[in-house]
Amino acid sequence: METHLPTAKSRLEELHKAREEALVAHDLARRTMKDCSSRPFTPFQKENVPQNEKDPLPSPMSYL
Fold it and tell me: Which domain of life, per UniProt (predicted)?
């Protein structure tokens, strides 16, 4: 009996190829963004606190 569905092996090969292509595209995008930026990248540290937690904006209710 003939089927139009791909075999599991061929499907896994297609997925592996697509994953490799995505990794290459991601790396290319990362390099392009790195080249476009003139600012140095400073990675976040675990102890960093977001700005809104350090100095929150006043709530609208505080004006009443």
Answer: Eukaryota
